[in-house]
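Narrative of activities, Objective 1.

The group set out to show that a structural description can be obtained from nothing but a protein's sequence at a throughput compatible with the screening campaign. Below is one input-output pair from the validation batch, recorded exactly as produced.
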Amino acid sequence: MRLFDYIKREGLRTAAEKIINKIGSKLGGRSSETVFLCRESQGVAPIALSPGYQIREMVESDIDEFREFNFFPHIDVRDYIPARKDGAFGCFKEGRLIGYVCYESEKIKEIHGTGRFALSQNEAWIGPCYVDRVHRGKGLNKALVQAVAASLAQKGIITLFTSINGAN
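Output recorded for this entry:
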């Protein structure tokens, strides 16, 4: 995503902080760290959402909206919808996509150049995730992840992996 697109989407303050952190890491400051997480899940109870919000698995009719909303230029929404072992859940406010969480399973997963590992039939990778900044702080990302975890548990996928970049 180009700088001006990032500023428009995330705001000037967030963009400036990210630029300062990047410059600092290049000048010998502490670079961001990535934390990897693994959790066994038998499914979780859904989180109650504020009125007007809905979470559901995305389908082919959501592709155009997902492609337009997609925050990460390196992902192709067609990798998640429709896909045999992968997918995406969306959070919608009054019918409009305002956040998403993707998942992948049964494949060799490469994590931003940090390594590769094989996901077995009962394992999944959660991510990428994104919630529009206007709607943050309402527990929507947590609700999306829990919806994904519950859906995957119904398919027998109980080991979930993800990573979080320290700069995020």
